[in-house]
Every structure is written in structure tokens, then in C-alpha cells.
Amino acid sequence: MTTRRALTLACLALVVGGCASRSAPVEAPSAGVTTTDQRAMALRTQAAHLERSGHLRLALEAWTSALALAPGHEPSRRARQHLRERIDREVAELVRRGWEAHARGARPEARRLFRAALALDPDSYAAQDALRAVPAPPASDFEARI
Fold it and tell me: Which among 108, 120, 135 is positioned nearest to 50, based on CA atoms?
């Protein structure tokens, strides 16, 4: 057999082998590999547990991640929306209580409430503005005299 013929047969074998591998059926995932649906289900379970435990910010992140894996899952979308509304209500309540504390001269309590609101929703403009509006007490006697 000539070298040219051997190379032609080798190339033909590679082409036929490549086509055959492309048309082979896709195997089901092995038992040790988790699917996207399984990961989304685990995140939904985690989100519900975190929400029941009062860890609302972490629960919101878990619902968001679950929706990223399974964007068409309508119950997750509704649960995330309800949680977002709950967080918004709690942030508004904390800010309101913070302003009440500030009005009665309890500046440290007001700042604590504003920081709690920011912990729930770091993007809350109301909580950010409120915390900026209520100055922190001086850290030392030296700063108080300045």
C-alpha cells in the first residue's frame, strides 16, 4: 500500500469516526451527576428554609439563583416576588422606626435601625440616605472636642 493511499484511508477513518460519534445518542446523566432541575430544586428548598428562619436576604439570593437555573418555574417566580415585597415592607418599617428614634434623640438606636434596613436591602436609597443624615457619635473624646 502506498503512503498516499494509507493517508487517504486514515483521513477517511477519522471523518467517518467523527460523524459516527456526532450521531451517537446522548447518554443519560450518571447517578452521581446532578441535573439543572435538581440543583434548582435544592436551591428552592434552601430558599424556603432560609425564609422561614428569618434570613430574608439570603433567601432572596437563593430564589434568584433557582430562577437563574429554571427561569420558567412560575412558583419560584411568585415566591421571589412575595419575598421581595416582604423585604420592602420590612425595610420601610425599619426606616420609619429609625426616624422615630432619631426624633426622640436616640441617635444610636436610629443608626442601628437604619443599618438593619440596609442589611435587608443594601440598595435601599431610603435607608442609605437616612444613615447619612444621622451622624455617628464621635469615636473618642478627642473627636468630640473638635
Answer: 120
**pTM of the complete model:** 0.68
**pLDDT tens figures, 57-74:** 999 999 999 999 999 999
Instruction: Find the angle CA(47)-CA(51)-CA(52) to the nearest 5 degrees.
Output: 120
Give Cβ neighbours of residue 86 (< 8 Å, ≥ 6 apart): 56
Task: Tell me: pLDDT of 29 over 70.
Answer: no
CB 110 within 8 A of CB 101: yes
CA distance 73 to 35: 15
The H-assigned helical ranges of the chain are 3-23, 36-52, 56-69, 74-103, 107-120, 125-133, 141-145
Instruction: Give the CA diameter of the chain.
Output: 100
Q: Encode pLDDT of 103-121 as tens digits.
A: 999 999 999 999 999 999 9
